[in-house]
Structures are given as structure tokens and as C-alpha cells.
């Protein structure tokens, strides 16, 4: 029982500070941590090798759980990790646009208009070209200015491709969302 | 006689089996890297070492699969794996997952069905024949003997075997109360499988390696195979499952010659010569392989024999050995 408040405090601190993505189709963070058996098969099957594993630094509850840092390598939505996950911590999702849009929620991209080149008058549009769901997750307006739509699943390919540093478009992970 | 010859080879076959599993655990991360290269069509962009890995893996896998994507058929570790269309998991994974989430996932529980049935039939057979940590622990036993020969003091203390059931129950309770998945973090086969993958395909060892090395050192200096005997939660679970197992090693008292080789070779500190196997025996068959009189054999029976007394060939071992085997051979041929 002693561990419960510790874990709660830990979860809160994680929720506010860390920015990482879970593999596509993952359960909500709290359910994910209790459903994942730390077998490491999602990373092994990932053809893009974007799935990495937490070490001990992030705490006992996070040890050996999979994560994706989109700036390093983003998810290509191949959905193999959901197929291989034995516990359903990563739900199997068919590799079709409508299934992915309906069931995948890794996060949502957000554009920082102060950093984005297109909003500074220099036509860019790289994020739109990198998006696997163009005009569904992101659309471009005048001067290729990106606008993220509600159906963005948060794969992070836009963040990976953004030519600005720091990135003008970033994925806000689902687990950091309030409510 | 053929039957004895076969059983006496089982220990070697078991070591082959353990080595094969270990080699597979090393091969799989390389296969994963190779698949990454082929998926990216990146051969020309690789440096010379990566090209070497690519070429080796291509040579190895080309006879087996047309397309490297088909290597997805075999993935995972002994903790949880996918073989073709079948997923197979350690029963301890089901225990820790269902206690952490406090819910029952039938489709996941079914992945542990085959290991469960095999354990009900043959007890701790996973520990003896598959567990990748067992290979390292057994090599470590020999290493401890080597150290001892050099004059390094090593201890062979005995503890209460029921300690591991306490570890299992305590681990499950803590998992249930806190939701922390701690069993995979202290279960050597899960650690070994994961760490091999981390070292080859990802950034390198994690802190679990330190824990595993500590268990190795405890095995060397404190108690022979101490972790498996006294602490392993998975071993505890398999022991419980194998309590009423059907496949058991039994001693044929009429030809036993009281040489005690089986007692001294048993990694788990059991006493085959006193008919004490219990639920702990991991069917490693080392006692069968070492028995000079072929008195230890596998039998289909749900209970161990009570102590049968000293062997009837007692104290005639050195003089009568050759004759004994000859008589025994005649007996089994005629029977």
C-alpha cells in the first residue's frame, strides 16, 4: 500500500514532464503500464526500428516499456507492433486509413506559428509532404501554412521532417492531454 | 538397453537444446536489424560493418525465406514469442499481467496454455531445457568449481526452498497493490532475452544486467544455483504446476549401487539416491547420465516413490560394475 501514493506522484510527474509517444494503437497510459508485459517484441518487429525502451531512469513503472521519440525516428504506421503484442497493450489495428484514424491516438501535432517558416513568409510545406494522412490530418493554406486537423493520429513524421530547429511542428503525446 | 542408452544421452541433448535457444536469442536481434536494412532498401548507404552483417544475414536466411519480411514468423524471447501464427507466453507473464491490471484477458492467457500443459505433465521442464538463464547458471557452476580449484573460497550454503514461493506470492501481491510490473524485472530468462536484444539492436545493457550478474555472483559464492533453487518466481510457479506431474525420474532400487554420484551431480541439490525428487526436479537428466548402474529412469507416474532404502548392490560398485551392466543388459533384452 505504501507504493500507491509514490506511484501516483510518479505518474503525475511523468504526465506533465515527459514527451514521448507510445506505439500506435496503445491503450491509455495507465492501462498500458499494467497491460504491457515488457516482452520487447514490438521493437523487434518494427521495420523502422523507431521503438526504443525506457531504462531505469524513468522509474520502475516505466522500465522496459516501449516509446518513440519522433524527432529521432517517427512511426510509419505499419501496425506490425499491434499484431505481435501478446497482451493487447498495443491493440491490433488494420493498416487502412479509416481504421488507423478511428483507433490510433498517439498524440496530436501542433504548429508553433512563431517558428514555422511558412508563417514567416518562406514557403516550406515539408510537414504536409511527410504526413501519411495528407488533407485528413493536416492541410495547407496560403504559402503552404500547415493547419493540423482533428483526425491527426500523432505518428510524428511531420516533426521528424521539420527543417526548423527547434521544430516548429511537434507532436503533443496523448498521455499529456488533460482529461 | 537401447532405452538406457537413449536416456543417458538426454543430458547432452538438453545442453544442445539450451544452446539452440540461446543462439536463437542472439540471432533474432540481428534478423531484426537485417529486416530494417532491407525494408529501407539501404544497402548502398551502409558502412562496411553493416554491409558485412547484411551479407551474413542474407546468406543465412536466403535458403529459408523468399522475402526478409517472412522472418517476422519468429520473433520474441522465451518470455513471450511468436512462432508462425502462434503466440506463446510464459505463465508467469499471465500471472503478473492479470495481477497488475486486475483483470483477466482470455486471449492472452491462452498463449500460456502450451507451457502450462507441458508443466503439468513434466514440471520444471522449462527451467532445465529452455530457460536461457539456465545455460549461463550451469556454466557458472563449472566456473565456481574452477575458482574453487584455484583456491578462491566459495560457499555452498543451503536455504529453505520455500523462499521462492514467498518471492512469487510477495511479487504478485506487490504487483496487485501497486500496479508495478516487477516480476519481469527480476525473472532471469526475461532479463537475459531482453538484454541480449538491447545490446545487439539497441543502445546497450540496461540496469537489469547488473541484477543478473549479481545473481550469478550469488550462485558462485553463496549457494550453488541459489537463484533457481531459492528465489526464482518463475521456478516457483513451475514447481507448483509440476507438483502432480506425470513424468518423473525414479530409482530402481534393485540395481542401485549407492555410489551417490546422482546426489553430488544434482544442480538443484536434490537426493535421487534417497528418492527425494519432489516438485523441484527440472528434468535435467544429469543424474541419469551419471548413474553407472542405469538405475535412474523416467517413469509415467503421478507420485514419487517413498524412500526405498539403500541400493541392493551396495558397496559392490567398483568390483561389480561391468558385470552389473552386463546382467542388466541381459535382463532388459530378455524382458
Give the SSE map:
The complex is a heterodimer of chains A (179) and B (335).
Chain A (H helix, E strand, L loop, with lengths): L2 H15 L11 H7 L5 H5 L6 E2 L12 E2 L12 H5 L12 H7 L3 E5 L14 H5 L7 E3 L5 E3 L8 H5 L7 E5 L6
Antiparallel strand pairs in A: 1-2, 3-6, 4-5
Chain B lengths: L1 H39 L7 H14 L12 E3 L3 E4 L2 E4 L1 H11 L4 H5 L2 H10 L2 H5 L2 H19 L12 H16 L4 H4 L1 H14 L5 H15 L4 H6 L1 H9 L5 E5 L9 H5 L20 H5 L5 E5 L16 H18 L1
Antiparallel strand pairs in B: 1-2, 2-3, 4-5
Protein described:
- The complex is a heterodimer of chains A (179) and B (335).
- With 179 residues, chain A is α+β, with helices and mostly antiparallel strands.
- Chain A has one domain.
- Chain A contains 7 helices and 6 strands.
- Chain A has helices at residues 3-17, 29-35, 41-45, 80-84, 97-103, 126-130, 157-161, and strands spanning 52-53, 66-67, 107-111, 138-140, 146-148, 169-173.
- In chain A, the strands form 3 sheets. Chain A has a two-stranded antiparallel ribbon with strand order 1-2. A two-stranded antiparallel sheet of chain A has the order 3-6.
- Chain A is globular, with a radius of gyration of 17 Å.
- The relative contact order of chain A is 0.18.
- Chain B has 335 residues and is mainly alpha-helical.
- Chain B has 2 domains: 76-245, no CATH class; 246-334, no CATH class.
- Chain B contains 16 helices and 5 strands.
- In chain B, strands 1-2-3 form a 3-stranded antiparallel beta sheet. In chain B, strands 4-5 form a two-stranded antiparallel sheet.
- The termini of chain B are close together.
- The A-B interface holds A 1, 3-4, 7, 31, 33-41, 43-45, 47-49, 52-53, 55-56, 60-61, 63-64, 80, 84, 86-88 and B 28-29, 32-33, 35-36, 39, 69, 72, 75-77, 79-82, 87, 89, 93, 96-97, 100-102, 105, 107-108, 111, 174, 177-182, 184-185, 190, 193-194, 197-198, 201-203, 206-208.
Question: What's the quick description here?
Answer:
The complex is a heterodimer of chains A (179) and B (335). Chain A is of the alpha+beta class and 179 residues long.
Amino acid at each position: 500500500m505504501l507504493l500507491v501514493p509514490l506511484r501516483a506522484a510518479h505518474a503525475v510527474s511523468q504526465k506533465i514532464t515527459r514527451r514521448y509517444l507510445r506505439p500506435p494503437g496503445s491503450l491509455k497510459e495507465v492501462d498500458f503500464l499494467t497491460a504491457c508485459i515488457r516482452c520487447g517484441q514490438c521493437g523487434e518487429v518494427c521495420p523502422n526500428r523507431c521503438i526504443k525502451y525506457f531504462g531505469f531512469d524513468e522509474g520502475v513503472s516505466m522500465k522496459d516499456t516501449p516509446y518513440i521519440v519522433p524527432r529521432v525516428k517517427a512511426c510509419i504506421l505499419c501496425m506490425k507492433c499491434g499484431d505481435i503484442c501478446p497482451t493487447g497493450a498495443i491493440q491490433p489495428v488494420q493498416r487502412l486509413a479509416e481504421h488507423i484514424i478511428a483507433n490510433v491516438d498517439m498524440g496530436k501535432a501542433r504548429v508553433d506559428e512563431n517558428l514555422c517558416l511558412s508563417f514567416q513568409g518562406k514557403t516550406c510545406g515539408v510537414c504536409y509532404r511527410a504526413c501519411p494522412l495528407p488533407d485528413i490530418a493536416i492541410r495547407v493554406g496560403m504559402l503552404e501554412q500547415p493547419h493540423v486537423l482533428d483526425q491527426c493520429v500523432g505518428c510524428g513524421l511531420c516533426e521528424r521532417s521539420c527543417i526548423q530547429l527547434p521544430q516548429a511542428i511537434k507532436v503533443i503525446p496523448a498521455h499529456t492531454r488533460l482529461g | 538397453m537401447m532405452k538406457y542408452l537413449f536416456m543417458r544421452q538426454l543430458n547432452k541433448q538438453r545442453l544442445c537444446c539450451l544452446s539452440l535457444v540461446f543462439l536463437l536469442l542472439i540471432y533474432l536481434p540481428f534478423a531484426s536489424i537485417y529486416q530494417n536494412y532491407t525494408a529501407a532498401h539501404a544497402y548502398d548507404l551502409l558502412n562496411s560493418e553493416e554491409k558485412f552483417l547484411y551479407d551474413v544475414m542474407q546468406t543465412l536466411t536466403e535458403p529459408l525465406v523468399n522475402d526478409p519480411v517472412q522472418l517476422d514468423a519468429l520473433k520474441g524471447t522465451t518470455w513471450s514469442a511468436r512462432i508462425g501464427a502462434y503466440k506463446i507466453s510464459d505463465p508467469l507473464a499471465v500471472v503478473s499481467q492479470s495481477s497488475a491490471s486486475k483483470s483477466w484477458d482470455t486471449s492472452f492467457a491462452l498463449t500460456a496454455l502450451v507451457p502450462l500443459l507441458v508443466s503439468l505433465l513434466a514440471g520444471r521442464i522449462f527451467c532445465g531445457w529452455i530457460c536461457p538463464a539456465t545455460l549461463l547458471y550451469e556454466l557458472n557452476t563449472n566456473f565456481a568449481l574452477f575458482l574453487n580449484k584455484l583456491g578462491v573460497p566459495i560457499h555452498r550454503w543451503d536455504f529453505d526452498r520455500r523462499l521462492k514461493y514467498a518471492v512469487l506470492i510477495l511479487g504478485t501481491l506487490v504487483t496487485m497493490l501497486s500496479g508495478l510490473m516487477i516480476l519481469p524485472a527480476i525473472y532471469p530468462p526475461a532479463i537475459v532475452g531482453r538484454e541480449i536484444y538491447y545490446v545487439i539492436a539497441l543502445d546497450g545493457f540496461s540496469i537489469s544486467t547488473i541484477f543478473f550478474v549479481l545473481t550469478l555472483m550469488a550462485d558462485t559464492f553463496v549457494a550453488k544455483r541459489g537463484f533457481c533453487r531459492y528465489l526464482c518466481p518463475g521456478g516457483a510457479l513451475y514447481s507448483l504446476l509440476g507438483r502432480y506431474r506425470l513424468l518423473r525420474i525414479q530409482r530402481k532400487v534393485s540395481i542401485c549401487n549407492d555410489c551417490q554420484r546422482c546426489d553430488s551431480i544434482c544442480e538443484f541439490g536434490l537426493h535421487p539416491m534417497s528418492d527425494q525428487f519432489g516438485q523441484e526436479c527440472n528434468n535435467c537428466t544429469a543424474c541419469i547420465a551419471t548413474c553407472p548402474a542405469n538405475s535412474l529412469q523416467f517413469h509415467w507416474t503421478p507420485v514419487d516413490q517413498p524412500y526405498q532404502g539403500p541400493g541392493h548392490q551396495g558397496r559392490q560398485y567398483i568390483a561389480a560394475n561391468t558385470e552389473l551392466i552386463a546382467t542388466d543388459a541381459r535382463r532388459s533384452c530378455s524382458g
